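Structure first, sequence second, as always.
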């Protein structure tokens, strides 16, 4: 049974709770590529008005996780093999820059936040909370972008983040991924922008190899969901 959106914090907009629930369903494979998302039906399911659902769908469209298909309305996006290659090309270039800037600009508080996310990923993995571990890993990358403190870079990365997080949710070796993140953290914490850039390029390149050119990402998602 699929979970309804939780919004225990009344200061948090309901649209964000709905967005997060829909995003999780996409990441976990409950909504396969091509699945229609009907505003009216979702509002009834979640027992909310259509406005927060409409706003949540708009945010997911900006992230590239859903798309508008005219008469079909909104549907979950799929990624072709070329989409994956193009996405990695752009993401690798931008993330290398983000890590370079983060190494030069990170404060002690920033480094503590990154360390905390690494520890959280380890804790989640230890208790078998795999999706929570993936979430901490995704937040680790998002935190690096924030630490880079470049508004143009953040604007360029924002539309890609949802799709990149989707891909990285299907990395099978989580302990190795967390170790890779620890090495990336060490490079950023060293304050050496060049070391951070090299480590970032290596990190992204390694996981790029997990998505073969002859296999569409949508098919990979379904195959890995079954294994």
């Amino acid at each position: 049974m699929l979970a309804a959106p939780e919004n225990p914090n009344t200061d948090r907009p309901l649209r964000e709770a709905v967005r997060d629930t829909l995003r999780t369903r996409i990441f976990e494979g409950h909504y396969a590529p091509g699945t229609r998302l009907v505003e009216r039906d979702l509002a009834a399911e979640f027992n909310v008005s259509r406005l927060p659902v409409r706003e949540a769908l708009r945010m997911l469209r900006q992230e590239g996780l859903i798309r508008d298909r005219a008469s079909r309305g909104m549907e979950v996006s799929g990624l072709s093999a070329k989409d994956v290659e193009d996405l990695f090309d752009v993401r690798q270039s931008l993330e290398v820059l983000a890590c370079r800037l983060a190494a030069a600009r990170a404060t002690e508080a920033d480094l503590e936040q990154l360390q905390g996310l690494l520890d959280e990923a380890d804790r989640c993995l230890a208790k078998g909370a795999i999706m929570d571990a993936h979430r901490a890993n995704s937040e680790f990358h998002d935190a690096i972008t924030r630490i880079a403190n470049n508004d143009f870079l953040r604007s360029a990365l924002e539309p890609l983040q949802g799709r990149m997080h989707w891909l990285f949710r299907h990395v099978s070796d989580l302990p190795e991924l967390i170790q890779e993140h620890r090495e990336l953290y060490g490079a950023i914490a060293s304050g050496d922008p060049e070391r951070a850039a090299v480590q970032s390029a290596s990190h992204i390149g390694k996981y790029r190899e997990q998505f073969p050119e002859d296999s569409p990402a949508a098919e990979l998602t379904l195959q890995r969901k079954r294994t």
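Margin note: The longest strand covers residues 66-68.
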